[in-house]
Amino acid sequence: MENTNNNLKKLDQKTLSQSFHRWFWGALTCFSQEHMQTFGYMASMLPILKKLYPNHDDQVNAIHAYTAFFNTNPMLGSVIVGITASMEEARANGKDIDGETINDMRAGLMGPIAGIGDSLIDGTLIPILLGIALGMSSGGSPIGAIFYIIAWVIIAYFGQRFLYFRGYKFGDQAVNFLVGKQGAAVRRAIGIVGSMVVGGVLASWVNVTTSLKLKGADGKIFLNLQDKLNSIYPGILTVIVTLFCWWLMSKKHVSAIWTMVILVVISFLGVLVGFFNPGLSY
Amino acid sequence: MTINWLQAALLGFFACLCSNSCMAGQAVGNYTIGRPLVGGLVCGIILGDIKLGIACGVAMQLVYIALVTPGGTVSADVRAISYIGIPLAMVAISSQGLNPLGNTAADLAKSVGTLVGTVGTVLYYAVATMNLVWQSFGWKDVQKGNLDKLPAVNFLWPWVSHAIFSFLPTMLLTYYGATAVKALRNALPMDGIAMKTLFTVGGMLPCVGIAILLRQIVNKPTDFIPFLVGFTLAASLHLNLVSITIVSLLFAVLIYEIEMAKGSNKNPVTATGSSSVNDDDSNDDEEDI
After folding, report:
1. Is there a contact between B50 and A140 if contact means CB atoms under 8 Å apart?
2. Per residue in A101-154, pLDDT tens?
3. Taking a C-beta distance cutoff of 8 angstroms, is the pair B65, B37 a contact?
4. Integer Cα distance of B156 and A191 in angstroms
5. Which one-letter DSSP state was computed for residue B73?
């Protein structure tokens, strides 16, 4: 690629925007277990390659760098697409960058970005938004759902757009604020918010109770277990069941589905001995 | 409540839009249309009972509040939860004559939704497998240099996968399932042990969802403390979630300041190149101990 003449190639806003929108919409539309986001990536790089390389053969040559396997958190992964856009621009201008350099960067970043993204977006931000939305939904009100739709779509669209253009502008320096010291501090701080909100969600919406009551010979109840438990710590059974599930999954490596099966067994036995009674009636 | 063909087809269409690989994109499809709370609103509008739809959506959202899909492995399918599970739960609740806003209705919704959602992972893998066909077209196009055909591989052909494995199953299961759910009412009496177990499990299922989230955020025993503080604020002090969020922001600011101050004495150079990304990340973990 001998483009060392004076007129440097520069990607315009429109092309970058098109590339970003393709990623925003199409990161996972053609997903398979084998190639995951590879085709989404190629589709979003295509406008950029077409802009940078007028020659068709160069375009075909360039796209081969993006046939390698790719998978990351699609929200934060937007920054990686932005970085490749700037690297591709540098390559088209004759800088010492080849497909391998681009692929090493992608392969190196997709793991850490996936880990941070999954815990930050799926594991923290979405539960916080949903927690607040659930709180607005009492009495079957649609306001919570509407709040979530508006809040999340705005955050997702402009957040990803910001990340994409930050990636384009700063190249691989762009991820420092995610993985660096400040990024780690922000993640810990958001993690605290997430933990507390999730605790609040559990207490507000989940209520595991026992119906166990012991009656004396005269038919009077002398032990109402639920009342006793409430006087110790309100919601203690809910916390115990949750911690039990956590213990099964993280310490005993039981899968989520088997954990649910274990809960079925516990419920069945609990109903048999009268520990649980949902109080059903027509 | 019944589900007619038009309603079933609409539910099928929404099922194509969500899930993990979906036609409306990740942010809008999976993370918005696919969330049970939003699904509850959509199903409520389609089936003409928004209140009941939201009530079912809230119940199921609790179970799946932390649906993390590391490396593309799923333990539940949002298309099945939101657009098969919720409509069937709505029919079940209204045919059982339960109060839509009551706890028993919510517990029934959770049991139905979780069962459908777990079985529904089949659909997820089916779509992903069928996409391999379109991807093989894509590889040929790349080899031959037909780059203009790539957008169709990514945006158009997967619709066929979804027509077969999202639209049809959703339409058929909601249409015929509604009849089956009603038949179940007579087969299983409400005061029998099967229904009692079903409802008890329903009440506990969100604990699994929350536990999945805890597995993400708890690395050491003290990480349980903010979670328990949040629980206590709601259970004992009866604060609502917006109030809890605001209280938690105070702690977030404190943690941020402490974290930023912590390293500044030890190593004043904070900006690191991307080459040390991994080292940097593991250092942070060590500092925490």
Report:
1. yes
2. 898 899 888 888 988 888 788 888 898 899 899 989 988 999 999 999 999 999
3. no
4. 38
5. -
Cα angle for residues A150, A155, A160 (degrees, 5° grid): 135
Q: How many Cα atoms occupy the beta-carbon half-sphere of A120 within 13 Å?
A: 23
Task: Give the integer Cα–Cα distance in Å for A221 and A211.
Answer: 12
Q: Where are the domains of chain A?
A: 13-201, 211-273
Q: Give me the count of residues in chain A.
A: 282
- Determine contact, residues B8/B43, Cβ cutoff 8 Å: no
pLDDT at B286 over 60: no
Chain B residues close to A179, C-beta within 8 Å: 277, 280-281
The pTM (predicted TM-score) of the whole model is: 0.84
Q: Which single residue is written with the structure tokens 């503080």?
A: B229
Query: Hey, how many other C-beta atoms are within 10 angstroms of the C-beta on B223?
Result: 15
In tens, the pLDDT along B23-52 reads 888 899 989 999 999 999 999 999 999 999
- Residue A31 CA to residue B135 CA, distance in Å, equals 9
pLDDT band at B90 (very low <50, low <70, confident <90, very high): very high
**Tokens encoding A122:** 């799926």
Which residue do the tokens 């501090």 mark? A185
Which residues, numbered 142 to 201 in chain B, qualify as contacts with chain A under a Cβ-Cβ cut-off of 8 Å? 142, 145, 147, 150-151, 153-155, 157-158, 190-191, 193, 195-197, 199-201
Q: Are A156 and A57 in contact (CB under 8 A)?
A: no
What sign does the CA torsion over B103, B105, B108, B113 have? Answer: negative
Q: Per the structure block, which two tokens stand in for B153? A: 């591989």
